[in-house]
Design goal:
490 residues; binds copper (II) ion; 23 strands
């Protein structure tokens, strides 16, 4: 049992034009579950100016396993790159268990791991590990293309857990032209590497009829083809287990994007992530000592609702947060002021569960305003050394990038790898920064950022927001009445 939208997984693709107001009405037809829809990569109160590939999914529990679909913001005018047609390639994970049973295990005492994925899906189709395509109803994914054409492939990482490497046998490079909804300068790669939460746009040329000869099917990765039902004797493509160098310090914006210099940075915050044991043998992830799950907010309500209802007292205390790794001990949230330019350094630290000192990789995603990704590396972040690597390099704006695993284990208190971002704090609101692996989120690898003061956050008047502040409010609507709404654009 899992959650679907309009009867399908992936959910239907949504295409909306840039610069226009589009209505998307979300109905929850599940009598026994809450749901949310997260418009991944978009700051919902700001206008979108360019084409991009986004996606939308439930942000509740493990519903996003199946409740996920592409969201394409179409260009306002001709795109900056020429291509004949496009295809969406959305990766998903298949687990041979219900969402509820996996989730129960993740929060159980003692902890029960979900196990690894049973199959990586392309656009909802795939064959589970140990099964053979073409038998017993197992269908292999097929991407239909025509000869002599250039395709814009829109890759969407909507797996729960898996990092996916992807290639097509006997073809040339993919040319990356976009990442996380932002156009980039062209950058060639031999194969794709996509973590959960990430999107990439690439140009891909198919062969001409003459080049094809009699061969019209090509293996995607391995084990897969609609006519070929057994794996090739030798893998048709060579990938690398070294994941941490893929397209690092490489993707630059097509147009200048106001990248902040080191001297413009006003504050550096570290988020130190580690796996820990909690009471009763459960296993959690904590960020600088704070495990954040749905019940962590002290008010028991969403932060925005609490801010509207309680006013400035619900804003996390900035001074106390600075004295406590960046997060306020009362509200369990990370405050920032509008106008700050943050440098956020995300660290891996070895697990202290059963003294195994293990490490994992984590695709970190930020809601709201995109960030400038200033790179990654093993060990401890060295600002001066990194500044040399940034010379002549202008990072593209991103919303999901990997904190990698460089070694399997290290000594207990070491800093075992980093990812760093710069963020211009300009969008007032409550935004999450979290690992995008669904299992890790449920185990607590999430942070909540409150950006701006009360007046800035509550700039939509209370009477206009009132319908959002409780279940069944007039902003929700139902079968018998249309929700009331506030125009965000003139
Ligand atoms: Cu993670």
């Amino acid at each position: 049992m899992s959650v679907v939208v309009n009867g399908t997984t992936p959910e239907p693709a949504i295409r909306i034009p840039a610069g226009k107001t589009s209505w998307i009405r979300v109905y929850n037809d599940m009598p026994d579950q809450n749901t949310t829809m997260h418009w991944h990569g978009l700051s919902q109160r700001t206008a979108i100016f360019s084409d991009g590939t986004y996606f939308y999914y439930s942000h509740v529990g493990l519903q996003a396993h199946t409740s996920s679909g592409s969201l394409i913001v179409t260009d306002n005018g001709p795109p900056p790159y020429r291509y004949d047609d496009e295809r969406i390639i959305e990766f998903g994970d298949f687990c041979n268990a219900t969402d509820a049973s996996i989730e129960d295990g993740l929060v159980a005492h003692p902890f029960v791991w979900s196990g690894e994925t049973h199959g990586v899906l392309i656009d909802g189709v795939g064959v589970a590990t140990g099964s053979i395509g073409g038998t017993a109803g197992c269908v292999l994914p097929v991407i239909d293309v025509e000869p002599s054409k250039t395709y814009r492939l829109r890759f969407i990482g909507s797996t729960a857990l898996s990092m996916v490497q992807f290639g097509i046998a006997d073809h040339g490079d993919f040319t990356i032209i976009g990442a996380d909804g932002q156009y980039t300068k062209p950058y060639d790669v031999r194969y794709m590497q996509v973590s959960t939460g990430q999107r990439f746009e690439v140009l891909f040329k198919t062969k001409s009829k003459a080049e094809l000869g009699n061969q019209t099917d090509f293996v995607i990765y391995c084990n897969a083809a609609p006519i070929v039902t057994t794996a090739p004797a030798t893998p048709p493509l060579t990938f690398s287990n070294v994941t941490y160098n893929w397209a690092e310090y490489a993707l630059q914006p097509l147009k200048p994007n106001d990248f902040p210099t080191a001297s413009q940075v006003t504050r550096r915050v570290e988020i130190r992530n580690r796996q820990m044991s909690a009471n009763n043998a459960s296993v959690i992830w904590a960020a600088s000592g704070l495990q954040w799950i749905d019940t962590t907010a002290p008010s028991g309500k969403p932060y925005l609702v609490s801010i509207y209802e309680n006013g400035p007292s619900a804003i996390p205390n900035y001074t106390n947060a600075l004295a406590n790794y960046g997060w306020d001990p009362i509200t369990k949230a990370w405050p920032a002021k509008i106008g700050e330019v943050l440098e956020i350094v995300i660290y891996n630290q070895p697990s202290i569960v059963e003294n195994n000192y293990g490490l994992d990789f984590h695709p970190f995603h930020a809601h709201g305003r995109h960030y400038y990704d200033i790179g990654s590396g093993n060990g401890t972040y060295d600002p001066a050394a990194n500044e040399l690597r940034l010379k002549g390099y202008n990072p593209v704006l991103r919303d999901t990038t990997n904190l990698y695993r460089y070694t399997s284990a290290q000594t207990v208190d070491s800093l075992a790898g980093w990812r760093a971002w710069r963020i211009r704090v300009e969008d007032a609101g409550v935004w999450m920064i979290h690992c995008h692996i669904l299992q890790h989120m449920i185990m607590g690898m999430q942070t909540v950022w409150v950006m701006g003061d009360y007046e800035q956050i509550a700039s939509i008047q209370h009477y206009d927001a009132a319908g959002y502040l409780e279940y069944g409010g007039n902003a929700y609507g139902n079968d018998s009445y249309t929700p009331s709404y506030v125009h965000q654009f003139s």
